[in-house]
Every structure is written in C-alpha cells, then in structure tokens.
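ok trying this again, last paste got cut off
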Amino acid sequence: MNMILTLRLGITTSSARHCVTVPPYRNLLFMVILLTAGRAQDSPEFSTGRPGHVETIHILPRGYYQFESNWTPPDDGGVIMLRTGLTQKLEARFTLDDLFSESSSNLGGVTAGLLMAIREDGGLPGMGVALSLSVPDTDGFQMDAAQINLVFPFSKGLTDDLGLDWHLAASHADGELAFSFASLLGYGISERVGLFVGSWGGSPMDAMSDMSLSMDTGFTYMLRDNIQLDLNGGIPITDNGEAVFIDMGVSFRLPN
C-alpha cells in the first residue's frame, strides 16, 4: 500500500519548533525505538501529525500509544507528544512544549487535549475537531496565561499517492482571540518515502491585515511499519513569518 501525505490548512497556536543542540531526551527515545523495532507485526496502519503544522484527523487505535517528537538545531528546543486512543473516534494527547530551548529552562510548557473524528474521507473531505489547553512554564506554570486552542482539521485523498490536509483554528489567551491556518500537500514517492510542501500562518482577530505566512517542505521515511523519520525546513513568506529553520523528527508507536 502506497504511503500518502496530505496538504493541510490549519492553525499554529504556539511557538512552532523548539529543540536543543544535543537534546537530553533523545537517547531515551532511541532506546524505546530499539526496544520496539522488532515488534511491529500486524499493527494498524501508521499515521502521524508530523511533519508540517496541520492537525491530523486520524485517531490512534484504542490501546495503542504513539510518541511524536522533533529537534530543531541548533538551539530552538524540541517537542514530545504522547497520543493514545480512547475509543474508535476519540484520542487523548499530552505534549511537553519547548524542551530545552533558549527561551525556556528545560520545559517551556505543557499541552493536554482531545482529538475527535467526525467524518472519514469519502465523497466529502474527512473532518475532525481538536480541543486543547496549553500552559506556559515561566518560573513556574502560569495558569492565568493558559491558552485554549480549538482546531478543525480536514483531509482529502486526491489520488492513491497524493493527498491534501488542512485545518482552521482559533485560540484564546490573555483576553485575545487569534486565528490561524495550515496546509500540507503530500505525495507518496514509494511505500516508504514521501514528499510534502505546506504553508501556515495566523494573526490576532483584530489585526487580520497583518497575518503572518510561512511555508515548509521535506521528506518522510518509514524506517519500519511503526517508526517514521522526517526531515524538513521552512522559510517566511511575509516579514513577520517564522524564521528560516531546519527540523528533524521521529514518530513511533508502541506495540499493543
């Protein structure tokens, strides 16, 4: 079965990419990967929310646990997300944000939330909804600065090898409402290698004329049926877009 990547329109509601030159958690991730690498037989189809900025509509099967992480050299920190399926249409996720970035000491914050599938891709695009709460860690967790994020992801397969994902989102923090979007068009070069190009941006609701825009592109590689590696980079389109970056990621699912 060919791998399909998708184009995503979506929201980016927090600082996008943060990692360290040598992330302390990287060795732990590789240890878990090595322990699970030989046990990926008969597992459900693998799907991640990486790379790109678009929220996925695909729910992790019940009873499975999946880790998705990134590293943005040399000093922008990293993110680790844990996902687990609760029911056929609902999953829970927990994220450690801005790990060891220059802007934080060890941990920049945490995010917890739920993703629910509403409709599978068919005649109409697939659709979901994600609700999350992000709490920054600035000399302690700041609940009064917490951000609520509401995302509506969509997905549409265009051919067997080409797909489009997008999402629209809103966030609320410190009394301010903001809008964001993201998109990703993906192409399966082979069963294990994929290529994508995406865009994203956003702005406060009262400053829509000053919306930021950025784009990225990259590759994914299925190391095993339950392990995906990715390499991507991005540039700003507008003056207030995200600075140039290179990002590397790994996603893996623990056997059931």
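PB: full thing came through this time. Residues 17 and 78 are 6 Å apart (CA to CA).
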